[in-house]
What we know:
Blueprint: H1 6-22, H2 26-42, H3 53-60, H4 68-87, H5 116-123, H6 127-137, H7 143-148, E1 154-155, E2 160-164, E3 170-174, H8 178-187, E4 208-215, E5 221-227, H9 235-248, H10 263-277, H11 279-286, H12 291-298, H13 303-320
Antiparallel strand pairs: 1-2, 2-3, 4-5
Helix pairs in contact: 1-2, 2-4, 6-8, 10-11, 11-12
Amino acid sequence: xxxxxxxxxxxxRYLRWFRNExxxxxxxxxxxxxxxxxxxxxxxDKEPIDVSVDDLRxxxxxxxxxxxxxxxxxxxxxxxxxxxxxxxxxxxxxxxARIRRPRAEKRVAPLLPADARPRLLTIAKHPRDRLALFCLxxxxxxxxxxxxxxxxxxxxxxxxxxxxxxxxxxRVLPLRGPxxxxxxxxLSTDLPHVGRPPEPDDYLLYxxxxxxxxxxxxxxxxxxxxAYPKKRPSPQAVHRWWYRQLQAAGLVGRGxxxxxxxHLARHTFATELRRVAGIDAASQALGHADLNTxxxxxxxxxxxxxxxxxxxxxxxxxxxREDEIVPPEADR
Length: 332
């Protein structure tokens, strides 16, 4: 185990601090531990005070064939660990202080098909499914945030939804338009496989399980569905729910469980909100702590922006055609 190495022992103390004092989530802890464990095993013969910047560059080079974005994350984890070690007095100076994060390639955020939203909302059979789809499509919540939504998080009177994002960061999203009407319908409807209206501590997307339900008139085995509304769904259960909705809407083929990731709904929402209300509103709705995060993903101009600009230019040309006026200089 990496914990048996000198560096691994220090990593164990860091992870304990990261969990108990910093408040990192379990998923974040797993990601950090995977990187730091590999670092500890690679530098198993080194004491923490003997680790050099070149040693750490050799460690980061283990991810050399991965994408720049992955190497960015690895570098951030390594730098965070050694910064903590310096602050806590385990070393004099962090050997990672001079390591820079690699530049990540700039890519246009992929979006859902243009007709995905109406098709999904039209085909969804139950208000519970439509409300969950609204949370993805017009509120931009993450998969983990959707899994954690309980009925108490909705406030029909204040027209809002409280969600808990990465690191248990809390944000409140205003509910407007059709999503509010869907919420009110959902609150007055019996839950699928439960047979009663939702209660405050129920989860929106609770797990279900097929169970033995006796035998039919010809002796065949019957299966029923048991629901667990008080239990949080796993990420895998939410993933399967999403692809069931996509299959029902005809957006993916039968049995397909990849190709239209749920996060595309968040990208689509953010892109549309940025066009309508600006980058600051998109950043706040997404729960980004740093505006630069939003700018890096959604701050660029995409094909739709260019199409709108060209349509405006074409209208201007039509108005000016008779006078043959040269277009004014663009605002700089």
